[in-house]
């Protein structure tokens, strides 16, 4: 007969196996798609389009590619003049696309001073090849993270009226789904911890960052992890980040939060402690990891798959599948296992749960392990999609809180639903408003919903107040 603990171990083991296999598959897929581009670059003629490799310095750069989609496979467009203008219209950088259709333009100033600003990347129409009609001649690039920014310019026959808007909306939806799945993991972890302890953990962002740092540290170790000739270093690094993050969550609870609970520390005081812990960990990360943007050794430049008018990279597909698998396994554990039922009982009424024989402290410890493991996995995969720095978790913490509150504090499905609403909304609003205001729009939706339904979309009214 299987005990709840053995079933939990089996389920987590299955998740880890799925994660390793999926990311290993992504690794081989990426290698297969990227190799022709590499060969083309060495021969001086581009056979496929790939983004330039991100720079390894403290400067934010615009990484671009110009592709002719009329060719199969796509080919880079050489000799196109590109300019970058700031918000006042002043030209701050110029470049000409190379033989592979790529260009790199460094932005002036340090990374921190550029945050919150936006730049317009424009093509010189006169330098384009004849008989080409690009979808757009300029794109606005908001600087929300202090890492290199990517921009693409597809070249080919113009579609019917309105097709450009529809394609852009679909492209943003794809990106929004990937980001939402990662946001949902982080939000679910925060919601689980709040539900069982009542703690509003402001250091949850640093738990997200911890996962990205662990995966990066493993990636930087000498040598490579290969299976059948396939490099799966990043796959193993993400699995290690998941496991080590769970251990870090147990340490957090055992060393800090459990003693505070036993002393009868109030929720407000513990919330203030979490703010202090957030500041401490963030500065600790900066001291050991540095302030510059980091990228994993693999997947820095990937040839996207073209599905109709959409461009989707293999890593985006794999990240989304792994994130959804993690969410499904976690919700299944919470719904159908004895430890999951005990967790929900503790969330509803800790005192009554203890009187019925449930070990409340053991349940809380398991929740800290699971919630932090999810946060760490979210951070590791987020770093895989866009790079990261020591503040990556802190920067999305507000969105994580918005997702949890919007869906319903302490609820399982509420955190997931709220995350997908927030994630998709922030991406799709860039169709109508400047990208730098997309987070403001998401928080505005949060305020409106809370005015109408303060317990959140899936929360219970008695949970509030």
UniProtKB/TrEMBL annotation:
Membrane topology summary: Multi-pass membrane protein
Membrane-spanning ranges: 174-194, 230-252, 264-285, 317-334, 396-425, 431-452
Keyword set includes Cell inner membrane: no
Subcellular location: Cell membrane
One Pfam family from the record: BPD_transp_2
InterPro entries: ABC_transp_permease, BCAA_transport_permease
Single GO term (MF): transmembrane transporter activity
PANTHER family: BRANCHED-CHAIN AMINO ACID TRANSPORT PERMEASE PROTEIN LIVH-RELATED, BRANCHED-CHAIN AMINO ACID TRANSPORT SYSTEM PERMEASE PROTEIN LIVH
Protein name: Branched-chain amino acid ABC transporter permease
Species the sequence originates in: Nocardioides euryhalodurans
């Amino acid at each position: 007969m299987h005990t709840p603990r053995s079933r939990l171990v089996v389920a987590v083991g299955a998740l880890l196996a799925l994660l390793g296999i999926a990311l290993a598959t992504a690794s081989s897929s990426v290698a297969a798609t990227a190799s022709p581009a590499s060969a083309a670059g060495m021969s001086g003629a581009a056979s496929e389009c790939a983004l330039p490799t991100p720079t390894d310095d403290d400067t934010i750069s615009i990484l671009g590619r110009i592709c002719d989609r009329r060719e199969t496979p796509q080919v880079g467009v050489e000799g196109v003049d590109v300019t970058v203008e700031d918000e006042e219209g002043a030209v701050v950088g110029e470049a000409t696309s190379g033989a592979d259709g790529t260009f790199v333009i460094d932005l002036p100033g340090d990374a921190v001073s550029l945050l919150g600003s936006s730049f317009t990347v424009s093509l010189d129409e006169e330098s384009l090849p004849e008989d080409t009609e690009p979808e757009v001649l300029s794109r606005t690039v908001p600087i929300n993270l202090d890492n290199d920014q990517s921009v693409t310019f597809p070249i080919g026959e113009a579609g019917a009226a309105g097709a450009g808007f529809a394609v852009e909306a679909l492209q943003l939806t794809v990106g929004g789904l990937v980001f939402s799945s990662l946001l949902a993991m982080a939000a679910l972890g925060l919601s689980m911890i709040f539900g069982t302890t009542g703690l509003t953990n402001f250091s949850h962002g640093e738990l997200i960052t911890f996962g990205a740092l662990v995966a990066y540290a493993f990636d930087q170790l000498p040598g490579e992890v290969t299976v059948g000739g396939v490099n799966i270093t990043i796959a193993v690094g993400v699995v290690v980040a998941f496991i080590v993050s769970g251990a870090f969550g147990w340490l957090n609870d055992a060393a800090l939060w459990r003693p505070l609970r036993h002393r009868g520390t109030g929720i407000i005081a513990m919330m203030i402690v979490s703010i202090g812990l957030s500041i401490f960990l963030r500065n600790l990360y900066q001291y050991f990891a540095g302030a510059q943007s980091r990228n994993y050794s693999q997947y820095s430049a990937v040839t996207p798959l073209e599905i109709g008018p959409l461009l989707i990279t293999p890593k985006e597909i794999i990240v989304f599948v792994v994130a959804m698998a993690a969410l499904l396994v976690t919700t299944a554990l919470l719904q159908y296992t004895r430890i999951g039922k005990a967790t929900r009982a503790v969330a509803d009424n800790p005192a009554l749960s203890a009187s019925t024989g449930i070990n409340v402290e053991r349940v809380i410890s398991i929740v800290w392990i699971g919630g932090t493991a999810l946060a760490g996995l979210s951070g590791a995969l987020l770093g895989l999609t866009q790079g990261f720095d020591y503040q990556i978790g802190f920067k999305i913490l507000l969105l994580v809180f918005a997702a949890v509150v919007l869906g319903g504090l302490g609820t399982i499905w509420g955190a997931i639903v709220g995350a997908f609403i927030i994630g998709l909304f922030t991406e799709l609003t860039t169709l109508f408003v400047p990208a730098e205001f997309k987070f403001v729009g998401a928080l505005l939706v949060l305020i409106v919903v809370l005015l109408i339904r303060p317990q959140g979309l899936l929360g219970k009214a008695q949970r509030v107040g």
